[in-house]
Amino acid sequence: MIEVEHVSRRFGPLLAVNDVSLTVERGTITVLVGTSGSGKSTLLRIINRLIEPTSGTIRIDGRDTAGLSGEELRRGIGYAIQGHGLFPHWTVARNIATVPTLLGWDRARIGRRVVELLELFELDPASYAGKFPHQLSGGQQQRVGVARALAAEPAVLLMDEPFGALDPIIRAKAQEDLLALQRRLGITVVLVTHDMEEAIHLGDRIAVMDGGEVLQYATPAEILAHPVPGFVEKLVGGAD
Ligand code: ADP
Ligand code: MG
Question: For the chain, which terminal residue's Cβ has fewer other Cβ atoms within 10 angstroms, N or C?
Answer without folding.
Answer: C
